[in-house]
Write a structure and sequence with these properties.
Helices cover 22% and strands 31% of the residues. It has helices at residues 44-48, 103-110, 120-130, 142-151, 161-164, 191-198, 212-217, 236-245, 256-265, 354-364; strands spanning 4-9, 14-20, 30-38, 56-60, 64-65, 84-86, 89-90, 114-116, 133-138, 170-172, 181-186, 202-207, 222-225, 251-254, 268-285, 291-303, 314-320, 326-331, 336-339. Strands 10-12-11-13-14-19-18-17-15-16 form a 10-stranded mixed β-sheet, sandwiched between helices. A 7-stranded mixed barrel has the order 1-2-8-6-4-3-9. Strand 13 (222-225), helix 8 (236-245) and strand 14 (251-254) form a beta-alpha-beta unit.
Length: 373
């Protein structure tokens, strides 16, 4: 049965479509969130289950979504935190030897509303020209949808990390991995990242509000700062802990972890007009000149102009060739670095995967394999 619906942006733009996903009984249904677009050609399951999309509605620019189904192995977190999914055409059948179900099943399972039949080219142009903005979709009246969109706060000024982080620490180990301990902050950590880190040692994943003292009490060989959603300025408790860890232990950050490291150093962050979301962003390694095709998902970035005023020597190591955004930094002499993009990229380009090797080498260089508290 076709469920007609509409998407309305805060600027008044209206798109007609067909509702997909869960169909709760009752009155008119409205889903709201900050509308962003993702340019990846594949990986819709990993994208939808990435905790970094908390508070957001994902517009897929690729027109045909769901054609290869979903499976239990490719989920990136314990659930799904996106507010909604917006597509041009939802595949009616899934065909792939790894498929265990349809994308519609995944939306039903996690209670994620969606809307199909949307002119995603027009929608993407609006976001690209005007920036990410709140939106609402459902089977309510156009006036109600617009009111809901205008009332949606978006992701600015909200601590979304608290909604996705683990409640309790847990450990991941792989047979044959080096005998070392990596403490990984969960700001919204992806499963693929944990798998990569587990090849370097025993991974102890801890909640976002874990103190520096508690981290060092675990006697880590390295500390990892994960990806995550929302405004880094609202996660000051994490930046404060990171500031106390710099110089004591090798640190590697990705995405939100990169932004929080910047804040911990005293650098500033800025919100990008429509962010970077996709698997095809060119990034240049400043040291080698090599251009890497990367996977990205973020709306905020570190301001490299603020590096000159910092107490430590901080330099930009990677730059986005599309818009010049800082894609990586190093704290010189402190065994500490981070990148804005996703070197684990599951699925996606693997050009930046060497960064895990770089972290491995930093940990291997510790005196006696450990750093004292």
């Amino acid at each position: 049965m076709i469920r007609e619906g509409a998407l309305v942006l805060a600027d008044g733009s209206v798109f007609e479509g067909e509702l997909i996903g869960p169909d709760p009984a009752g009155t008119a249904r409205i889903a709201t969130g900050e509308v962003v677009f993702n340019t990846a050609l594949s990986g819709y399951q990993e994208i939808i289950t990435d905790p970094s999309y908390a508070g957001q509605m994902i517009t897929f620019t690729y027109p045909h979504i769901g054609n290869y189904g979903v499976n239990a192995h490719d989920v990136e977190s314990r659930g799904a935190f996106a507010r909604g999914v917006i597509v041009r055409d939802l595949a009616r059948r899934a065909s792939n030897h790894r498929s265990e179900g349809h994308l519609a099943d995944l939306l039903e399972q996690h209670g994620i509303p969606g809307i199909a039949g949307i002119d995603t080219r027009r929608l993407t142009r609006i976001i690209r020209d005007s920036g990410s903005m709140p939106g609402a979709f459902g089977d309510a009246s156009e006036s109600d949808l617009r009111a809901a969109a205008e009332a949606e706060p978006g992701t600015d000024g909200i601590d979304l990390v608290a909604t996705v982080t683990t409640a309790e620490p847990y450990t991941v180990e792989l047979d044959g991995a080096p005998d070392r301990t990596i403490v990984a902050y969960d700001f919204g950590i992806k499963t693929t990242i944990v798998r990569q880190l587990a090849q370097l040692g025993r991974v102890e994943v801890v909640p976002a509000d874990t103190s520096a003292d508690d981290v060092m009490a675990r006697n880590p060989d390295g500390v990892f700062l994960s990806n995550g959603p929302g405004d880094p300025a609202e996660v000051g408790y994490a930046a404060e802990a990171i500031a106390q860890l710099i110089g004591k232990v090798p640190i590697f950050g990705i995405c939100l972890g990169h932004q929080l490291l910047g804040l911990a150093l005293g650098a500033g962050t800025v919100k990008l007009p429509f962010g970077h979301h996709g698997g095809n962003h060119p990034v240049q390694n400043v040291d080698t000149g090599r251009v890497e095709i990367t996977s990205q998902n973020h709306n905020f970035a570190v301001d490299p102009d603020s590096f000159a005023s910092l107490d430590r020597t901080v330099r930009m190591t990677h730059v986005n060739l599309n818009d010049g955004v800082c894609q990586g930094l190093e704290v010189v002499g402190e065994r500490c670095f981070s990148v804005q993009h996703h070197p684990e990229a599951g699925p996606g380009p693997h050009d930046a995967r060497y960064l895990f090797t770089q972290f491995d080498e930093l940990m291997a260089g510790n005196t006696n394999g450990k750093v004292s508290v």
